[in-house]
Amino acid sequence: MTETTQNEDLPYTPVEDGIRLALRVTARASKTGITMFDKDTAGRGLFRIRVAAPPVEGASNKNLMAYLSKSFSVPKGAVRIESGEHSKIKILHIAGDVKRLTEIAEDFIKKVS
């Protein structure tokens, strides 16, 4: 996977076969969804997202990946956790058409900013 130019202000990075998303996940929410565009302590962009499932036996990760699969209109198998499987801060990879996935990520930024 080759990384293209990265803008650390954004919560996503286009890569050769899709995009990488930076997320801060909160489990046990009333509903699942992206709530805001934020920055981590180092100033890098990330999406804050809430998931309804509890963080027990991978339930919140499964809920998160199903939500992103539906939101980005990709198969569930196209979404995988690259890092942070047991952490609130996660990096996910979504495989697919880079241009289309980037447009969807930009739409999320506009909706929650």
From TrEMBL:
**Highest taxon of source:** Bacteria
Q: Per the record, GO CC terms? A: cytoplasm
> Matching Pfam families, A to Z?
DUF167
Enumerate the InterPro entries for this protein.
DUF167, YggU-like_sf
**What Gene3D superfamilies does its record include?**
YggU-like (3.30.1200.10)
Q: What PANTHER family would the database entry show?
A: UPF0235 PROTEIN C15ORF40
NCBIfam families cross-referenced by the UniProt entry = DUF167 family protein
Its family remark reads: Belongs to the UPF0235 family.
Supply the name of the protein: UPF0235 protein Zmob_0483
What species does this protein belong to? Answer: Zymomonas mobilis subsp. mobilis (strain ATCC 10988 / DSM 424 / LMG 404 / NCIMB 8938 / NRRL B-806 / ZM1)
Tell me the organism's taxonomic lineage.
Bacteria, Pseudomonadati, Pseudomonadota, Alphaproteobacteria, Sphingomonadales
